[in-house]
Each structure stands twice: as structure tokens, then as C-alpha cells.
Fold:
Amino acid sequence: MYLHLGEETVIRDKNIIGIFDLEITSQSKITRNFLASEEKKKNVINVSEELPRSFVVCSEKGKNTTYITQISSQTITRRSKNSANYE
Structure:
């Protein structure tokens, strides 16, 4: 199934590695280093111009992509679980 991350961005839910709350996880140096590294590699897609609330790490065909979105991690997780019920 597919999962809407905001604006016009839709991803396949089977490609999701993790869904993270940006406020909580950005307190960790490891997370900040990860996001900085992914930005350097141009693997980050900012889904919205609004205040970011979460990020979703996906992998498809060996390439990782990190989506930064204004949608909360709880909402994305709930959408993912709901889409799994339709499969």
C-alpha cells in the first residue's frame, strides 16, 4: 500500500525503515549527525515548508531516502497500520 506524507508526496509503506519524532530524536547527537550526513548525500526530501514534526527513513533498491514532514510521527504510524489492514 501507499502512505501519504504531506503535500504531493506518497511512498510505499513496505519501503519504510523507521518513523521518527523530530523533536524527541533531534536531541541525540547521533540523530543530528545522521540527518546532516543524509543531507550532504542529498538523500533528504523536505515534504513541506511548514514546521517539521517528524522524519521517515525509507529504502528502495538499496538507496535510502529521508522524508521530513509536518505530519506527526503518531499520525504517520497510524496511517501505516491502517493501510496494513487493507492488504
